[in-house]
Design a protein that fits this description.
Blueprint lengths: L1 E4 L7 H5 L7 E4 L18 E7 H8 L4 H13 L1 E11 L10 H11 L6 E5 L1 E2 L1 H9 L8 E2 L5 H7 L2 E3 L5 E3 L10 H4 L12 E3 L6 H12 L6 E3 L15 H6 L3 H11 L15 H5 L3 H5 L3 E5 L18 E2 L2 H8 L4 E4 L4 H7 L19 H16 L3 H10 L1 H30 L5
Parallel strand pairs: 1-2, 1-3, 3-4, 4-5, 5-7, 10-11, 10-12, 12-14
Antiparallel strand pairs: 6-13, 8-9
Length: 430
């Protein structure tokens, strides 16, 4: 089986699951390297699988200079084997399908292929509802896609994967390394803790700016661990819509105080790409063991409600940020899309209604939902620490249960995913 990877820098699926697989002839190309002519991929013949990421779809086939790439892609398709497959690798951060349906259809139209020749592998959930919203109909997704709710947590939860040829590759879980000795044998601190709240933010996004501004404005850092690791010096400080900050009564604080305080670094010593992934993403168990609850600001959160198309508000993206809290005996309130908690419960996890009013998870409007989250944080922060301690320990069985669900996903769902991928790709034994 001959596999062509458009840009190996953005490939996760084959790098993880089929690295050095003896059943495949994988040819890696690099579109971003100056010492490599990535365009040579279009001269390949007799191939079976073409792989590109959602980023590649945007960059090479949706921009103003797409015509040459479309022409080359048509040439490549003409030289494919009869039952070829095109794989869209949507694993990892930023793999949001909600805004890319049109790009996928445009790609199919431009290169003259049927949508059912596209196979989607995504770490976003709620894909079917998202598509129906985008189409404004009950039409089924014409693309083939791998529909497995455990897939994201396999990707973000597993440290290393060993395939059939005993090739070891790192997965998304290598960033947080939950199952090394410290995390595997972690015991929760039973003493009264110094902090109520834990809220850690690395990359600046509007919802995270709002949350951390609200917490700092209310001086919750006096009773908690709150960070904002970016100094905002290398980005436009006006990137955050001032009207949204104003709606949350944070614009004055943001301009007069927050910008003078950042960076607030308690979990990363430096904010740069030279720091190891282990140092940047591994949970600091001392923080979890010295606080009572987390504010999990997930990756994707569209603040503006588009009344014409809600599809980009529907994909649910759950990453290592959520996993870290579930693994570390920590109840949490989550800043994410509607029904994120519902999806977690469907996967077998238990959430924390003993501590939080979780009705925010039912609110579709993103700004209303975020205001509900902030209001609930305010309520919980007013609790006496001894009362918070008592509520925390009333949920001990849930903490243990959630860790067991993660272990079940890692140990039992990972081989299931690998088997599924082999079947979908039609990989035959040598």
């Amino acid at each position: 089986m001959k596999v062509l990877i458009l840009d190996s820098y953005s490939d996760n699926l084959f790098r993880i699951f089929f690295n050095r697989d003896s059943r495949m002839n994988v040819k890696n190309y690099y579109q971003q390297r100056e010492d490599s002519d990535g365009s040579q991929i279009y001269n390949e013949k007799n191939w079976d699988i073409f792989v590109m990421s959602l980023f590649d779809l945007d960059k090479h086939f949706s921009q103003d200079d797409k015509e040459e790439n479309i022409k080359n892609m048509k040439q490549l398709l003409a030289n494919a084997n009869n039952e070829f497959k095109i794989i869209i690798d949507g694993l990892g951060e930023g793999g949001d399908i909600g805004m890319r349906w049109k790009h996928l259809f445009d790609f199919c139209d431009n290169v003259d292929i049927n949508p059912n020749q596209i196979n989607l592998f995504l770490t976003t959930l709620n894909v079917e509802e998202c598509y129906k919203s985008w189409k404004n109909s009950e039409e089924q997704i014409p693309f083939k896609f791998y529909n497995n709710d455990f897939f994201p947590f396999v990707y973000f939860g597993v440290n290393r994967f060993i395939n059939r040829d005993n090739s070891i590759t790192t997965m998304g879980g290598e960033y947080n390394r939950l199952y090394e000795k410290e995390g595997l044998f972690l015991k929760p601190n039973r003493q009264l803790r110094d902090n109520k709240i834990l809220s850690l933010v690395a990359n600046p996004m509007t919802h995270r700016v709002i949350v951390q501004n609200h917490l700092l404005k209310n001086k919750y850092d006096n009773e908690g661990l709150i960070s904002f690791n970016d100094d905002l010096k290398t980005i436009d400080k006006n990137i955050f819509n001032p009207q949204i900050l104003k709606k949350f009564q944070l614009l004055k604080y943001y301009n007069e105080e927050f910008l003078n305080r950042v960076p607030i670094r308690i979990d990363w010593e430096e904010f740069d790409n030279t720091q190891s992934f282990e140092g940047r993403y591994s949970p600091n168990y001392d923080f979890y063991n010295n606080s009572y609850f987390s504010v999990v600001c997930e990756t994707n959160y569209e603040m503006e409600l588009d009344n014409h198309n809600h599809s980009h508000h529907l994909p649910i993206f759950l990453t290592e940020k959520t996993l870290n809290a579930l693994w570390s005996y920590h109840p949490f309130i989550i800043v994410n899309q509607k029904h994120s908690l519902k999806k977690l419960r469907e996967m077998g996890f238990e959430t924390f209604s003993e501590l939080f009013d979780e009705s925010y998870d039912e609110e579709f409007d993103p700004q209303k939902r975020l205001k509900m989250v902030l209001s609930e944080i305010d309520r919980v922060m007013k609790l006496d620490k001894k009362e918070l301690h008592k509520i925390y320990w009333s949920m001990e069985d849930k903490f243990v249960h959630n860790r067991n669900v993660i272990l079940d996903i890692v140990l039992n769902q990972t081989p299931n995913v690998y088997e599924d991928l082999n079947k979908i790709l039609g990989v035959k034994e040598v």
